[in-house]
Design goal:
This protein has 223 residues and is of the alpha/beta class. The chain has helices at 22-31, 33-40, 46-53, 71-78, 90-99, 137-147, 184-193, and strands at residues 3-5, 11-13, 61-65, 82-87, 104-107, 120-126, 148-159, 164-169, 175-180, 196-204, 215-222.
């Protein structure tokens, strides 16, 4: 697999997700939705969620970006928050609607968010932007910034590393997935350029057999 350097000097693979039809990417998650739900049900990042929620007023409106089968949305709604979840996988949304009937869910592409400006108090993107090519990350972050209210809170967690590549996911029968990696300084720069102030950042080592990489996470505020 050939690699080259992006504008920031980081090695990236020339196998970009955009070369594969989005319907194929969606089908991967549709086919593995049930097993994904079972594998991740008990992996709620509760400590990170508690820190994120500590910045929010009661009953705040949270957008769960890449909500999957609704695990995190369920946690938020049980604490009294108003949650809207989106995912590109129809099967994931079906599971989420059954799991969390008192939240709103919709099928939507992260790269094409269709919400009014200043609509949400907060956005939660836990392990969901890790399939977005780096050349599209600035536009996605800007879209999230736009739909947040003034001083809205944004949580993001991504795989730690450099570049981007197509790799089989052996947890799900070796299906090919596009992965993107960031180091802490790199992601900090992306967030700052999109108009966010960093409130907290953390590096997370591998802590379960399901995880394949260390993670980095940020809590940021719209400015």
């Amino acid at each position: 697999m050939s690699k080259f350097s992006d504008a920031g000097g980081f090695e990236v693979s020339d196998c970009r997700r955009s070369q594969k039809p989005i319907v194929e990417f969606t089908s991967v998650y549709n086919e593995t939705a049930a097993s994904y739900q079972g594998n991740t049900l008990k992996l709620l990042p509760e400590h990170k969620a508690i820190r994120f929620l500590s910045y929010l007023p009661p009953k705040a409106k949270i957008l769960d970006i890449g909500c999957g089968p609704g695990r995190d949305a369920k946690y938020f709604t049980e604490l009294g928050f108003n949650v809207t979840g989106l995912d590109i996988s129809e099967k994931m949304i079906e599971l989420a609607k059954r799991e969390v009937p008192n939240a709103d869910f919709m099928v939507m592409d992260i790269e094409n968010l269709n919400f009014a400006k200043n609509q949400f108090d907060a956005a939660w993107a836990s392990a969901s932007l890790l399939h977005v090519p780096k050349d599209k990350i600035p536009a996605v972050l800007q879209s999230i910034h736009n739909i947040l209210k003034d001083e809205g809170i944004f949580f993001i967690a991504l795989r730690k590393g450099l570049g981007e590549e197509m790799l089989p996911d052996n947890r799900y029968g070796g299906v090919e997935k596009f992965w993107v990696y960031f180091d802490e300084d790199e992601l900090h720069d992306y967030l700052k350029k999109a108009g966010f102030e960093i409130l907290e950042s953390q590096t997370h080592d591998i802590s379960t057999s399901y995880q394949t990489n260390p993670w980095i996470s940020f809590i940021a505020k719209k400015i």
